[in-house]
Amino acid sequence: MSKILIVDDELRVRDLIKKYAKFEGYDVSEAGTGLQALELCRSHEFDIIIMDVMMPELDGFSACREIRKFSNVPIIMLSARGEEYDKVHGFESGVDDYVVKPFSPKELMMRVGAILKRGGITLPESKEIFQHEGLTVDFTGRLVTVDGKHVDMSPREYDLFFFLVKNRGIALSREKLINEVWGYDFLGDDRTIDTHIKQLRKVLGPYSSCISTLRGVGYRFDE
Asked: How many other C-beta atoms are found inside a 10 Å radius of the C-beta of residue 222?
């Protein structure tokens, strides 16, 4: 798991970046000042650092120069100022990329991924997750939670439910569901689909109504 150090004296900025970084599968550490970042870098190894320029005790440029004395860890600098002089100063201090505030967290994560990829570091697999109120469907981890509790499903029930959710808002005939979930060599009948839908509704509890019955057609997942 790639390790990111987020350095910013603003807690809300750290929390925002941390939220996106953890979602992408990174291991996250934090520092609120340049000095804290320097101490962490001397005692821990990181794959990349995201650091703000304006911080108390030791600003980002100075912290970067100190880190460069003993480490070549990639550093992305964050700054509210986007003048050419500031960018040049940053690159001269040893930063690898420069991002101007306000920034897009998604774009920042893409920059992180690009730098790590160039360095030959294997990137974490992005999670594919659907969430509706208290219902969470983690396609990557093959997990379903209802109001914070994991739901147990059979392998076929997972396949059927995931197909419904991925095609939410679309009317799916029984024939379509059989062909896509069971395969063309399926030897059962429509009642097999109905039985699995009944079981899905049972385990989904308060979210059972998300699976709508389309009389004479099939089923549809609605948010």
From this structure: 11
Q: CA-CA distance, 118 to 101, in Å (whole number)?
A: 24
pLDDT exceeding 70 applies to what percent of the chain? 90
For the chain, residues classed under CATH 3.40.50.2300 are: 3-118
DSSP letters for 1-19: --EEEEE-S-HHHHHHHHH
pTM value is 0.55
Compute CA distances 185 → 174, 179, 194, whole Å: 15, 8, 18
pLDDT at 55 exceeding the cut of 60: yes
Sequence-distant (6+) residues with CB within 8 A of 157 are 196, 199, 200, 203
Q: Could you name the CATH architecture of 129-221? A: Orthogonal Bundle (1.10)
- Report d(CA 19, CA 124) in Å as an integer: 15
Taking residue 124's Cβ as centre, other Cβ atoms within 10 Å add up to 17
pLDDT of residue 199: 94
What's residue 57's pLDDT? 82
SS3 label, residue 100: strand
The continuous run of DSSP H or E covering 21 comes out as: helix 11-23
How many whole angstroms separate alpha carbon 85 and alpha carbon 87?
5
Considering only the top CATH level, what class is 3-118? alpha beta
Copy the structure tokens of residue 17. 């970046």
